Amino acid sequence: MLAFLLASVIPTSFALDENCRYCLCVLVVVGVDAELEEPLVPDVARTEDVIVSQWRDVSVDEKHRLRERFDEILRPLGLQTRLFVVERANSLALFFLCMTLSALMSLRDQWRTGQLRDIVESLFTFLASNTDDDGDTSEVDVKRLTWPLADYERCLTFFSSLQGNIFLASIFR
To answer: CATH number of the domain that 61 lies in?
Structure first.
């Protein structure tokens, strides 16, 4: 599990405020682990490999034949949250970019209510069923979707403390 923070200063040419020389872009990266349900997925390791491989193909190619359905599955995440990495670890690691505090809180709410698990299961089933191998379209069930409270709280703290710092910086410029 991982939660880390990124902040970047962008030159004026990209800033939204003409009186500002730099624009501070802030986001958090949230790591969530997805463990597949073994009895329902006959070969977990192979299925995870297929999901990661298909993810890499579809996520980088805006014109990929599967892109429309891919985007439709991820649409409930919202405009300010992006799933940007799916990797194999002991389970499948998913990394989300949350660009605002409200996006982070919405993602956590989706996780808490089980909606995020449904989105991830739909995505994994879609990716696993669109291979040229055997055409098997069985559902991929996620046994556990782990996002520790401590990681979420660290992200909350970052956004909360940052908002105060931006406010103070704008007063004293």
So the answer is: 3.30.70
